[in-house]
Design brief:
Helix 2 links the parallel strand 2 and strand 3. This protein has a 4-stranded antiparallel β-sheet. The chain has a 4-stranded antiparallel β-sheet with strand order 10-11-12-13, with helices on both faces. Helices cover 27% and strands 20% of the residues. The protein has 353 residues and is of the alpha+beta class. Bound molecules: flavin-adenine dinucleotide and iron/sulfur cluster.
């Protein structure tokens, strides 16, 4: 079957200010385009396409990369090959998609990519045969058809559980990265973890017309031990179906700080910050992961095998993968524990991968 792009008007601003102006003019009927490796396949499937596409590809302000900041327009391949960013970030970039896709795909697109679901990433005709779904053109969810409301089981026409499938998001969240946006209402900087919130449709708290400008890495990110492990059906091309990013600060073998961010098991990446459990928002729905429920106390304790087992078990217990991307949820849930255990042991024993 031939899949054609729908008609749209392409705008190619050369500055951020012009891009923001265009976003204001076409409010409600546009998408930003960076490398296009996520947006254009979705457009071809008729998924929430708009009449205007504003390309960010010619904006030099988005393409700077230093030790501490990575522009949203920096290509994945340039992060992979950069010697100044933390090695864990370069490693993660090098495990995204395929060499060809990493040449086009960008950091901004990776952090803002749309959530995935077996019932969403399909052609228009395929989705039509099933009556569509909440996330595009329809009014029900095929993954979680019924939900509990006030003790009653009712049709789910509210919560989408499509999976956030970015590799870089969990790694950058574990490292405490910040994101800077600019838009019609001005600029703002916030923690990447605070940006993600909500179900598989909302995904993040973004103001209308905002452009992701850059990602900032704290000094801490260069000092701690960090790494990423990815579960995917194949070693290349495939999206993660579970991804574990860890930042670990040890003092004489004792845990000073531990941040584990899990990707591809929920509607947003999920941060388990073992240092600051009290400050975190509750999940948007009972269908989503609650990282802080029964979180073990690890700060100041020796990171021995028993503690690693405790942390891994907690992550495995709390993660709530759904049956909407490849690989069975029970297996993915178990692998969240397995990958956490392996990565924590590697980081403790010195390897940074
Ligand atoms: C076959 C295949 C395999 C893939 N495998 C992986 C994988 O293993 N891991 C993974 O993480 N990803 C994977 N991807 C997804 C995608 O290729 C990457 O995430 C890539 O980094 C997306 O970047 P892009 O610049 O192409 O995004 P685009 O398609 O240009 O944009 C994606 C979304 O982000 C928005 N956007 C982009 N930049 C900005 C910005 N600066 N400000 C505001 N909004 C912005 C766009 O509006 C759009 O909604 C895969 C894709 C394909 C097709
Ligand atoms: S999880 Fe979201 S994308 Fe998947 S069927 Fe349900 S509403 Fe649609």
């Amino acid at each position: 079957m031939t899949m054609l792009l729908p008609r749209f008007e392409l705008h190619q601003p050369a500055t951020l200010a012009d891009a923001v102006k265009l976003a204001k003019t076409h409010a409600g009927d546009f998408d930003f385009l960076s490398g296009g490796t996520d947006l254009l396949p979705n457009y071809k499937c008729g998924l929430n396409a708009h009449g205007h596409v504003i390309s960010l590809a010619h904006i030099a302000e988005l393409k700077q990369i230093t030790r501490d900041t990575i522009g949203a327009g920096v290509r994945i391949v340039d992060i992979e090959r950069n010697a100044d960013v933390p090695r864990s970030v370069a490693f993660t970039a090098g495990h995204i998609a395929s060499p060809l896709l990493r040449e086009s795909g960008t950091l901004g697109g990776n952090l803002m990519l749309d959530n995935r679901c077996h019932f969403f990433n399909q052609s228009y005709f395929w989705r039509h045969s099933l009556g569509y779904c909440l996330k595009a053109d329809g009014d029900r969810c095929h993954v979680v058809p019924m939900i509990n409301e006030g003790g009653k089981s009712v049709l789910n026409n509210k919560v989408c559980v499509a999976t956030h499938s970015s590799d870089l998001a969990p790694m950058l969240i574990a490292l405490g990265a910040e994101v800077t946006f600019t838009g019609p209402e001005g600029s703002r900087t916030l923690k990447l973890n605070d940006f993600y919130f909500g179900d598989g449709i909302a995904r993040f708290e973004r103001k209308p017309g905002e452009i992701l400008v850059k990602v900032g890495l704290p000094k801490w990110a260069h000092e701690v031990r960090s790494g990423y492990k990815k579960l995917a059906p194949r070693q290349s091309i495939d999206f993660p179906v579970a991804g574990i990013g860890i930042a670990l600060d040890l003092d004489k073998g004792k845990v000073k700080a531990l941040r584990v961010a899990v990707g591809a098991v929920d509607t947003t990446p999920v941060l388990f910050d073992f240092s600051k459990p009290a400050q975190v928002k509750a999940p948007a729905s009972y269908l989503l992961t609650d990282p802080y429920k029964n979180m073990p106390d690890v700060i100041g304790k020796q990171l021995d095998d028993a503690l690693i087992e405790q942390v891994s078990k907690h992550i495995q217990t709390q993660c709530q993968p759904k049956l909407n991307v490849p690989m069975e949820p029970g297996y993915r849930k178990k692998m969240c524990g397995v990958l956490t255990r392996r990565l924590l042991a590697e980081l403790r024993d010195g390897a940074k991968s």
